[in-house]
Amino acid sequence: MNRKSNNHSGIVYSTDPSFQSDQTTSPTETTLPATDQLLKIRLETKHRAGKAVTLIEGFIGSQQDKDVLVKQLKNYCGTGGSSKDGEILIQGDQREKVMLWLQKNGYIKTKKV
After folding, report:
1. Residue 9: inside a domain, yes or no?
2. Could you tell me if residue 16 is inside a domain?
3. 101 phi/psi in degrees, rounded to 5
4. How many domains does the chain have?
């Protein structure tokens, strides 16, 4: 039995016959269309043992859509990457490739910082 699925915010038992748990579902983020996304692309080497990482910031949308975008970018660039803390990380200096792919796929509001 999965204990996390029955989380009632710490309430174990209630004597109130009309009690209903206040389980609020997390609001689903709607993903903005590609033409409305304002993405910033930059190169970062800090806190990464001198390794270069292409950072994409400003993506507004659900985690599933972000994961799909990360997978497509990694496949196109032929490198690894991930999405952490609202940022998309692509290994290496891939700014030109990432910008080209994003603009080709409708993300017209991209800029290098």
Report:
1. no
2. no
3. -65, -45
4. 1
